Records
---
Amino acid sequence: MAKINILELLSACKNLAEESGEIITSVFKSGDLNVQMKGEDDPMTQADLLSQQHIIGGLNNLWSDLIIVGEESCEIPKTDKIPSINSLKQYENELEKKQPEFLSLDTKDLIIFIDPLDATREFTNGRVGCVMTLIGISYKGKPIAGVIYQPFVDADGIASKESSKWVGRSVWAVVGLPVVGLKDKRAPEDVGKVILVTTASHNNQQVEDAINKIKPDKLIRTGGAGYKTLMVIENLADVYVFPTVGTKLWDICGPHAILLAINGSLTDPFGNEIVYTNDPKKIDNKYGVVITIGDHQKYINLLNQK
Ligand SMILES: Nc1ncnc2c1ncn2[C@@H]1O[C@H](COP(=O)(O)O)[C@@H](O)[C@H]1OP(=O)(O)O
Ligand SMILES: [Mg+2]
Ligand SMILES: [Mg+2]
Ligand SMILES: [Mg+2]
């Protein structure tokens, strides 16, 4: 049975996500987004397609039997790309002590979830700060590693309108290893406040009900599932709630792994764990998601009060 080292797999994913960032910024600069509607309020652009093709094409060149679930339904043309598998090698000794089984995972129990471009709607109308590429690695139904790549930001992850500042930023984690490069970004005036972040473009009655139940001190509405989860990860928000169908497993797997690595939580609004599967009937987060960095049960209780 084929075995995979998580650090080699994540190194390849990180390399491919970073290169997808270049694809995404160059499509954006060209102005030729070629927006197609997959459904009501569900756009896809040339950048979503090319990014997914680049990532899956690269992974296929290294591991032909990997199970991959990508957001877009498209052909994957053969590429010459051989992704780097060695960029995280320095973490091998530490991982061997903490999660030795991760150095030799059964391929058949791995599923890779790819959102080649999260926040497509914002990408199409120029609000590119929330755009990111999300790659999550699940093992036996649970997220164990992930990478998110923000193309339109400086090295600190600050969004910029000026293309000269777009150096991009990767945030990656393996559950069980310390997370590299994350900062607590809570503003001093927001310490002690409850900050809730939710959708800017898919508002509905359930979202309003959830806000009324949690009664946050501050409410932020912005785009992208990855962007909102990163806000929780960096302590810019306490809770991200989207209590209804809309996001899919590829929107949350990578961010979920990074969240778990810093002891955060992601469940459905009833507090049930998400099961990562490639069963197309179970790809929707049909009850929605609740994402926190602490006090998870408090928010679940508030959401379920009568
Ligand atoms: N109704 C929907 N149809 C398709 N994708 C959705 C829907 N609702 C949410 N999403 C996905 O979840 C992300 C977060 O949603 P929101 O910004 O409303 O909070 C969106 O950027 C989109 O990901 P994507 O852009 O990768 O298609
Ligand atoms: Mg989409
Ligand atoms: Mg998405
Ligand atoms: Mg997407």
---
Amino acid sequence: MPEIIKTNLTNGNGVQKQRSTSFNEEENKISYESLQETSKYLTDRVKFTPKIGIICGSGMGGYWKAGSLADALEDKIEFPYEDIPHFPRSTVEGHVGKLVFGHLSGVPIVCMQGRFHYYEGYPLWKCAMPVRVMKLIGVDYLIATNAAGGLNPTYNIGDIMLVKDHINLMGFAGNNPLQGPNDDRFGIRFPPMNQAYDRQLMKDALQVAKDMGISDIVHEGVYTCLGGPNFETVAELKMLKMLGVDAVGMSTVHEVITARHCQMTVFTFSLITNCCVTDYDTYELPNHEEVMDVGKMRQGILKDFVKTVVLNISKKYVK
Ligand SMILES: O=P(O)(O)O[C@H]1O[C@H](CO)[C@@H](O)[C@H]1O
């Protein structure tokens, strides 16, 4: 039996939260059957089947407030993560910690208000396990959003970067959500990743941006995920720039790998919440408050953008 320890965590505001973790997380890996229990708990309580799942990035999960995406959700059914069997807990400020089912412009969706990050102490497979739960519920299309630092010098704070590819740096170091025995019921042992981000959904989203008159703030770029929780050094950022990274964050890549493993179609975008500092004479310090403020500032545009992308997926692709 793995030894269980109690850990004190802070949510970024100095508020202490307690969570149990296991020393041997691999042994503790959640089985297909356990995830079926999780999905059954949810489907027993929700009378519609969402085909589209959304993961809200930092500061973007404030969608429950007036004028927000969650505000636009109808027939909402909310599940705090602590009530869902086998689900991890959110510990980061700006990540509410609820799974919300509802209709967006009449389209049934499920939305994660709060995701799990490696730096919270969860292994990558656990950070990404809600994606598998979504799959078991019936979700075929994943819209993963995140807050990220802009490395591309043409990006401004508040811009949107459609993710066309990623560099799995944590994977380079041997850390991957698919590590361990492969369960073929989810997907194959060696999934390809060269079509990770659906080209057609990206083209459609560019058209949505054009129709909304926001093409000037929308880009296509390459995202990378670092382990965090510290922001990057100048030397690290210079290296990432040389590698061809346009935006850097601490999430999403493991979710996308897990989603592609189980044949979900993926659309991802980053909200550029800060411009990465790549010289030693700039004294601005990146911080999580700014990240959340920009999320809030862009809430209205993101709501309209996501609503239209969802409607488009539903009309054009969902069977
Ligand atoms: O990727 P999301 O969850 O949007 O959050 C981003 O913002 C936080 C840093 O401010 C980090 O967690 C980073 O990954």
